[in-house]
Design a protein that fits this description.
Blueprint lengths: L2 E6 L12 H14 L4 E9 L6 E5 L2 E7 L9 H15 L3 E4 L2 H9 L4 E5 L3 H4 L6 H20 L2 E4 L2 H7 L6 E4 L19 E5 L8 H14 L4 E5 L5 H13 L6 E5 L3 H10 L2 E2 L10 H8 L6
Parallel strand pairs: 1-2, 1-5, 2-4, 5-6, 6-7, 7-8, 9-10, 9-12, 10-11
Antiparallel strand pairs: 3-4
Length: about 300
């Protein structure tokens, strides 16, 4: 009998456009496990992009999406955990692998052996945010994080940093396993263009895109032809407007391109043409874009 695994994870609703690194890692983990003998793998994901709860099959991979509201006045975490718990009890897998704390919490509450792949050091991220709703959101994150760390037996750490941050918070065994990336990044040709820089990641405060624009402003004083390409999904519209306003205020319109969410094919081309990748985040765990850039032979700052 094959082992029945449910990947309870962030998984892209549009499989040609990945919103962020956690979705990308989830997608390629599913693809990797799907190709192994003796494993029956399914995906369970919560998505604001899904118009309603739905099931679909992606190249032979069964995926179930639970819809959540795009706009909300109160964080959806508790609601999502309850709904995921119910679904996991129906699915009855042998093991659950969760790639965010809500999925790991649901697996444990469903009474199913659960492995948690840590993509975020929640207590460090919580220190960044000051707005009341963000502070409430991270208060809940940390509550569920403590619950999960107390109940786990095994944790996949995507970097040694995860082990350092959590070893005193859990008795679980750590397994350090790097994120997986698309093989195509190892075959990117070098079509480097002078003074062309690339940022790849979602647009919100933790990624410090405003700090990146200030760096760009200073660089342009000495290198007026510098070009910064910002590729990524907007998670915070107000923050994105501040970034656009900053670029306009400092006369950077010809130097900065806001590309929005892109396809993998576009990112392969952007990395090919970039001199380097810039990632000025206030907090990271194991950013996929760094692995992708290094695989493409590009320096990272």
């Amino acid at each position: 009998m094959p082992m029945n695994i449910v990947l309870a994870e962030q998984y892209p609703f549009e499989t040609d456009k990945f919103p962020g690194g956690v979705h990308t890692a989830g997608y390629f983990l599913a693809r990797g496990l799907q190709g192994r003998d003796g494993i029956d793998v399914r995906v369970l994901s919560v998505s604001a992009d899904a118009p309603h709860d739905l099931d679909r099959v992606d190249d032979g991979l069964p995926v179930r999406f639970l819809a959540e509201p795009r706009r909300r006045l109160f964080p959806n975490m508790g609601r999502n955990i309850r709904r995921l718990t119910v679904e996991l009890r129906k699915m009855k897998p042998d093991i659950v692998n969760g790639n965010m704390v809500i999925y790991a919490a649901a697996g444990l509450r469903a009474g199913i052996p659960t492995v948690y792949t840590v993509h975020a050091v929640v207590h460090r991220e919580a220190q960044i945010y000051k707005r009341p709703l963000d502070k409430l959101r991270y208060f809940l994150y940390m509550k569920y994080d403590r619950e999960v760390m107390a109940g786990l037996r095994h944790i996949i750490a995507t970097s040694p940093y995860v082990v350092e941050e959590y070893r005193e918070r859990t008795e679980a065994q750590f397994h350090v396993i790097d994120n997986c990336i698309d093989d195509r990044f190892f075959a990117v040709p070098n079509n480097e263009e002078p003074d062309r820089l690339l940022y790849g990641g979602v647009i919100y405060d933790r990624k410090n895109v405003l700090g990146l624009l200030e760096i760009t402003r200073r660089l342009v004083e000495a290198r007026p032809n510098l070009k910064l390409r910002i590729a990524g999904k907007v998670l915070d519209e107000a923050y994105n407007r501040r970034c656009i306003a900053f670029a306009k205020e400092h006369g950077l319109e010809r130097n900065v391109d806001f590309m929005g969410q892109t396809t993998i094919e576009t990112m392969l081309d952007e990395l090919s043409r970039a001199q380097m990748l810039l990632l000025p985040s206030k907090q990271e765990t194991a950013p996929l874009i760094i692995s992708e850039a290094l695989a493409a032979g590009k320096p990272v700052v």
